User: Fold these one by one.
Assistant:
Number 1:
Amino acid sequence: MTTRRSAAVATMLASNPARDGRDLLESLPDELVAHILAALPLRTLSVSSRASRLFARIRARLDADRISCALELQRFPFRDGIRPHTKEGSDAFFRDRSLRDADVKVLAKACACGALATCRELHLSFNSLADGGLAELASSFSWVTMDSLRCLSLYKNAIGDAGTAALGRAVSSGALPALETLLLNNNQVGDEGVAALAAAAAGGKLRLLSKLSLSANRIGDRGAVALAAAGGAGGFGALRSLVLERNRIGARGMHALSREICCRGAFPLCGVEGRRHMSIFLMDNPAKARPVYSAFSWRRSGKGAS
């Protein structure tokens, strides 16, 4: 959707390079400028000289922003965390760097400018990242779709509902289409944040997710019910590991999970034998997990409601 919007803005600027177009250019955020250039490259334009000068200003502004971003990353102590993965992509390891929200803004700016567009793994665990930092990072994902990102590791931070909800909205927009592993354990995530992730899954935006770790948070019945409903809607078709230990899930949440697991259309891999079968971890919650584990046995025996 962002690309379509950018193409529309670019076309308007090219066809109307008058003062109103220049005024609009000055009001555009840098990230949208990047999308405009991607949507309508200069070399393909056949426009007036005034429009060409206008696009030259756009390109100069984008280049200046990229230079600024590069200089910030060069000065920043975590720049060594970006490591080549293959010639097609890289990994970013910023684990245990004592990073705070203000630090992550540099990384968010790099993401928004496309500097990490080929990143396959982004590790930010064991830091002091809170809601504001994750919200800004999630917003940068929305500007430049992270098509290559497979693993997002955010465990052992101070992330709550607001940050997780922002991440859920970014995922719902299609920003992380290839995500396979999401680690949010040992944070402060509650029902609202989990509901946002569940909504993204129910909308088909986490169809490749194979591991979701949410242990040691503040998730209660409402969050568990939301996850169960997303599973019932087919949102977790590839999920192999769901970790919900050490939360606040009561009998209502356990019942919702067990009811969906008993249905063949929900959580499809929990009825599969062998190495690909789904595992769920629910220890140390207020309610006993026996109904859920019994539902697993029921499914794996080849039974279950159709």
Number 2:
Amino acid sequence: MCIRERHACKKLCFETCGDCLEMVTRTLRCGHTTELACYIDEEKYLCNQLVDDILPLCKHATKRKCHQKVEEVACSHPCEDRLDCGHSCTLACHKTKDPDHLTVSRIPIIEFSEKLLRVLQ
């Protein structure tokens, strides 16, 4: 017999019952409901429900797991900036890493320019 909900053990009489694996609906601390094995403590369970949010630095909309802090979510929105050379940045949004494009995409453009000059000569 399960301690928490008094579910009957479904194992044979010579088998140890162990944790109660009966699935039950639980309401988590965040207010979401989910199906969990009876033995899992809903107070310690990390909610995986996807929620809509806005990233604080770039203000792009995103989805994150309910238990994740919004600051831990990487933005997957394409970068909308243009580089000094006029090309569009090909990276995903990177407001937390080199937002001014000081190091991103510089070397490949220089290498491309050198190859282009050799072809044109």
Number 3:
Amino acid sequence: MRKQIFASITILILLSILLSACGGTATPETKPTEAPTKAVEEPTKAAEPTEVAEEPTKAAEPTKAAEPTKAAAPTKAAAPTKAAEPTKAAAKEEAKLKVGLVTDVGGVNDKSFNQSAWAGVEKAMKEFGVEAKYVESKQPTDYEKNIDQFATEGYDVIITVGFLMGDATALKAEQYPEIKFAIIDQAWFPENEGDPDPYEKMSNVTSLMYQEDEVGFLAGVLAASMSKTGTICSVSGMEIPPVVRYVVGYQSGGKWVNPDVKTLNVYIPSFTDPAKGKEVGQSMIGQGCDVVFGVGGNTGNGGLLAAKEKGLMAIGVDVDQYLTYPEVKDALITSAMKNVDVSVFDYLSSVVDGTAKAGIMMANIKNDGVGLAPYHDWDSKISADIKAKVEEAAKALKAGTLKTGYPPEVAEEKTEPTKAPAATEKPAPTKAPAATEKPAPTKAPTAAPTKTS
């Protein structure tokens, strides 16, 4: 019985402990109820995002920013009309002047005539932005087809180099009237007094001409003044007007300063035969010549080389050959220059500015279109008296009080109908050269060597 009572008491104690344990946790239960309430309130506060959400609505000012309509100023800036300037620039690019140069058989690196013409074109390329290229003629039969090549490629200007290209140039200028042509060293004149000016028909052709006889005269004055043997000579290319003018002027200048000087000359029927030029030069040196004038591209260059190898004096032609033919520079006392590069550039300048005209552009002593090159290494070896004599001759030529001996009086009368200043150029036709050839042979045993060449 006691045991049962004890067991019952034990159970009661345990139940009491359990109940007190449960009761202790019951109090916290009310707190959880409060806690959730707060927790629930927190979200409501946290629900402030709704307030934040209002910000976007304000930020919805993009609608204001939608002032792209105002920013539509691009349309003003877009002012295609102003921006259209690129179109003009593009038009200029498209309309770039195209210039073609057809060389004579001497080629573009002849250290002389053709090379100088191309230098004038190159200057125009740099200064005016023209597009240009050259074609070298290997033989006379190439002239027409080389011109055709440029014409079919849409070139605006074609420059032909040399007297020998006269026929081809005249023919093609008529065939391609929309193209401007310029030819160096060839001009056309009325056949008879009262005949129309040929350039009325050849209205797209400009002749770039030079009074080679004037600068040849100055070269002769210097040569005869420097000669110790009293014999000067010229190794010449083909017997055509420009070459003849050089030779006649050279011989006349020598006679002007020294009436007793002996002048020798040989015409060689080629501009590309330096070996023959050297051979002829050596022959004339053997006859006492101590100043050699090389007149005829690479053929004349052979004469200069002959003088250099013998330690004698030489005179270059067309350009300052001290600069273009350094192999002979020690022998060169000067060069008889015609400023082909300047003439070509000036002509292209007139084409660019729209003032180019058909007819003759004459280069002479008066306009500095021809003249002697510097004396370079020989400057200190040429006396002040000799320099003064050359200067005296130059002034007299400018003043018109000194005659070069070219052309002969009869031919000069025929030149009267020609355009100014073409009078001096009348000899360009084949008739005139024949007349002028007489002076060279009459002065020395020139005629014989000419036949051998």
Number 4:
Amino acid sequence: MPQKKAKVGRPRMPKGTTKGRIVPVCFTPEDLRNLNKAAKADKQGLSEWIRKTLRGQKMETWIKVRKDGKQVTFSYRETGRDQAAMTAKVEGDVFSQLREEGGLVLPLSHKDVEDKFPDSN
């Protein structure tokens, strides 16, 4: 009777003990160099540094209805001490993105973010 071949690789972990799903992400070579430098400076692995950085960012999303009845979906994320990234997506795929660096007093209110996109009113 033939013997079973041993499977290659790490044994399966018990259900519920894994960190979660793997999400494939593409970075430009320059972005990847910068990410690796930042992770190394914090004495962390790249995946650990990315998770820590993402968890530390405040992000809000909300919907407002314009006078013409179209919905606008706003998002706001603090990216640094006085930096923020904001987006406005109008129903029908009109999309605006804005990144402001320096001079912002955070956190911004919903009205502050909406005022950055005059076409959203």
